[in-house]
Amino acid sequence: MARGRRIPDFSTLPLRAVEAWVDEWLARGGAAAGRRVLPRLEADSRRAVQRLARRLRARLEAAEAETARLARLHRYEREARDRGARLVAGADEARKGPLAGPVVAAAVILPPEVFIPGLNDSKQLTPAGRTALYREICSVATAVGLGVVGVDRIERLNIFRAGLLALGEAVRRLDPRPDHVLVDGGWPIPHLGIDQTAIVRGDAKSASIAAASIVAKVARDRIMGELDRDFPGYGLARHKGYATREHVEAILRLGPAPVHRRRFLRKLLSTRPG
Q: CATH code for 75-226?
């Protein structure tokens, strides 16, 4: 452990040895070790070591800011547990806006002691970042549930009700069953039979909702990749069903596929010749 190791006199070591020692020290002890070693680096008058100290200080400040952000992100979960809930789930859906494909919702129960670095609203993340966090979430979560509502039910119900249905399916697939559900948006899930809190923009305010937004987004993107193979020519794997120029032109050229949401296409199809 870094705690039991003696910090050397850096002034007696070449720069590369200092850098290697600090990297190993941080790998063993994390931010706490970094705070212990920083004064020694700052006391070294060599410019290169001073630059190393500044980078380490910036790294530690960024880590502290991330820890504080994650603590704020767990506020709603803490409040629900303070009211007696033992298992708190977050639920979110993706995506109501596309012209094609299902609505996919996810529900996630995170252990209270687990803080996932980088966890955020899925819309704020790169595809690679979402995929990495998806794996981490699925690895550490107490439970993950998915709800998928296809185009046929979207057409029958309308997109708003289909989104709520997908959210309900995701929560009901959680095992164990949560005591409280934090739901993204302004509407609770109907007929759920579990205490809920609806949070507007909850994917940016709640850790478990943010986790659910990532799981739902990655799951839906994978479904769209499969649909792209089943219905080639529309570019579904690239634009995920959104109304990009490529997608609109493909619909006008090929006509809608069975995975298209006809309610969303009425105006567009009215302009199609023939």
A: 3.30.420.10
